[in-house]
Amino acid sequence: MGGGARSCHPECRNGGREPEGESENAAVVAETTETPLWRENEPGRVESWRLHILLEAGYPVHLAERLAASEVDLHEATELVRQGCEPVTAAEILL
Question: What predicted TM-score, i.e. pTM, was given to this entire model?
Fold first, then answer.
């Protein structure tokens, strides 16, 4: 609506203007709702998911953390261990 006068019912006390602060609040709400909260830490969520998959595949925590934070192909990392490659050797191949 804008802060200027507009035609409204004659009994309207503020002459058709929005209550003070309402337009600023609307702008703040619009800004905060444009980016969904679940996207704010999406890279962290992806890394956490990758870490979980690598731990399930049998990588020790310190190697799983390094691999999860890298751009290593997750399918290749899990497949190497599934085929019998030791996690340390697999990490050396991948990193």
Answer: 0.59
87 shares its domain with 52: yes
Q: Which residues contact 64 (CB under 8 A, 6 or more apart)?
A: 51, 54, 55
**Total structural domains in the chain?**
2
Burial of 92 (0-12, 13-18, 19+ CB in 10 A): exposed
Residues 44 and 77 in one domain: yes
Residue 20 pLDDT > 50, yes or no?
yes
CA dihedral defined by 76, 61, 44, 48, rounded to 10 degrees?
Answer: 70
Q: In the chain, where do the E strands start and end?
A: none
Domain that holds residue 88: 40-94
